Structures are given as C-alpha cells and as structure tokens.
UniProtKB/TrEMBL annotation:
Alphabetical list of InterPro entries matching this protein: AAA+_ATPase, ABC_Ni/Peptide_Import, ABC_transporter-like_ATP-bd, ABC_transporter-like_CS, P-loop_NTPase
GO biological process: amino acid transport; transmembrane transport
Family matches, as SMART domains: AAA
Pfam families reported for this sequence: ABC_tran (PF00005)
Protein name stated in the entry: ABC transporter ATP-binding protein
Length: 284
C-alpha cells in the first residue's frame, strides 16, 4: 500500500479575473523507503500539490481529488482535528527558505520542543534531551547552547538543519522536502542533501523531494514526476527518465542542463519546448 496516494488532484484559487487552476489533474504515489522527486520550473504546481495534500492551503483554495489518502486513510474526508494529529507527526515538511520559515520571535529550541510537546506529550526535561539528540543528528555543533539561539543568530545552513530536525522530530513516515537547498551555497547544498539521504535511509521514511534541479533528481530519486503548468507531463524511474524521456518538456529540461549544452549559450526552456499541443497528451 502506498504511503501517499493522489489521483486527479485539482487546486483552484479565486483571482480578480476568475478562478485560476494551479494544479490540474495530478496523480502520483510514494511508498515506504522510496524517494520520489517532483521536478519542474517555478510555477509548475509542485509545492501547491504537496501543500494541498497536507491541508495547508488557505481556505479560499478549492481542493478536489478522486483520491487523496495517507496510509489508506482519506485525508480530504478527515475531520480537521484528526488531520492535525497526522500533519507534523506522520507527515512532515521542510519548507523553502529556512530563515523565513522559522519564527524570529522564539528560540530554535522552543520551536523544536513545541513540536515534541504537541505531538508526543513529552515533559520539559524529555523535550530538551530529545531536542539535543535531534540537533546532534543533523550536525548542529554545541546543540545545548544552540537551543537558546534565535534564527537570526544562525547561518542559512544551520537554520536549514534546524528545520530538518523539527521535521524529523516525531519520526515521520513521510517527509516532504520543498526545494531544501535553494537558498544555500553549493558546499552547504551538498551537505544538506547528504544529510537528508542519510536520515531517510536510517529511518526508512518515504521522501518527496520537490526541486527544479535535475542534478538533485539524478543524485537522490528512485522515481520522478515531471510537472508543467500544473499538469503531470510524465512519471518514470530515474534511469528511464534520463535515458529516454517521453515528453517534450522533460527533454527540454534535460537539454537545458549545462552538461548538455552544445554551444556558447544555454538554450531556454521556451526555445526548446515549443510544442504546446503536447500538453493535451500529458499523463495524469
């Protein structure tokens, strides 16, 4: 049984000019111990798809699906109070821009201990002990001292490690990492990716990696879902996707990689992906 199963997910937002469909009929599955990459350029509906699955979109968003389940349980039909017990505990998410995702008014120790208090009911001493263990697990030096720091007192890489520690605090079955390396320099990006893959292997989590970086996809994923303009272009195991992509859009993404450049200038996606008609045949 799939950990997360989505069939024909549609997300619409109301705008001044009428409804805007940000996600249009997307379907996907992720299983235990599997790494699924969702790849596509900015605005392709990757993050919105996962926020919809977790119930974290504003109430103005209209979310429908033929099926949206976690561990066989219907997330759409679930009462909000019941869903809150799952989100942050069994399903957890690492958000974009770690510094902005942490509350600047509270110490990082308070923020991780709050998750442990709400979901696991640990007392103060237990929470501090577990928080130190988590900081050690994600490679934060002097963890006891760091618990008393505010986000602005830590680097971007350290804040990302704090976000990862918070996300894995309750040993989730499914971890969603939304562009986890975008705001970091190249050296720190590698460290964060290695950390995520080590934690995924150690805990046996399902992992969804949202990214626009095909290099990250090649390095981390078992399977890949390619999205464009809110639709799924194709889904394949990572080797098949790189060796024989089926959609024009995927071929355009791969052709735009620096290693595949044939001239002095990298081509743009719009130059490569000119067959808009191929959208009509997109897999859903």
């Amino acid at each position: 049984m799939a950990l997360l199963e989505i069939e024909n997910l549609v997300v619409e937002f109301q705008t001044a000019t009428g409804p805007f469909r940000a996600v249009d009929g997307v379907s996907m599955k992720v299983h235990e111990k599997e790494v699924l990459a969702i790849v596509g350029e900015s605005g392709s509906g990757k993050s919105v798809s996962m926020l919809a699955a977790m119930g974290l979109l504003p109430w103005t968003a209209k979310v429908t699906a033929d099926k949206l389940t976690f561990n066989g349980r219907d997330l759409l039909g679930m009462a909000p109070a019941e869903r809150k017990k799952i989100i942050g505990k069994d399903i957890s998410m690492i958000f974009q821009e770690p510094v902005a995702s942490l509350n600047p008014c509270f110490t990082v120790g308070f923020q991780i201990e709050e998750v442990l208090r709400i979901h696991l009911g640990l007392d103060k001493a237990q929470r501090r002990k577990r928080a130190i263990e988590l900081f050690e697990a994600v490679g934060i030096p002097d963890p006891g001292e760091r618990l008393g720091h505010y986000p602005h007192q830590m680097s971007g890489g350290q804040c990302q490690r704090v976000m990862i520690a918070i996300a894995i605090a309750c040993n989730p079955k499914l971890l969603i990492a939304d562009e986890p390396t975008t705001a970091l320099d190249v050296t720190i990006q590698k460290q964060i990716l290695d950390l995520l893959m080590r934690l995924q292997a150690e805990h046996g989590m399902g992992l969804i990696m949202i990214t626009h970086n095909m290099g990250v996809v090649a390095e981390t994923a078992d399977r890949v879902v390619v999205q464009y303009k809110g639709r799924k272009m194709e889904e394949a195991d990572v080797l098949s996707l790189f060796e024989s992509p089926k959609s024009n859009y995927t071929r355009a993404l791969l052709a735009a990689l620096p290693d595949n450049a044939t001239g002095d200038r990298l081509p743009t996606i719009s130059e490569l992906f000119v067959d808009e008609q191929s959208l009509q045949g997109a897999a859903r």
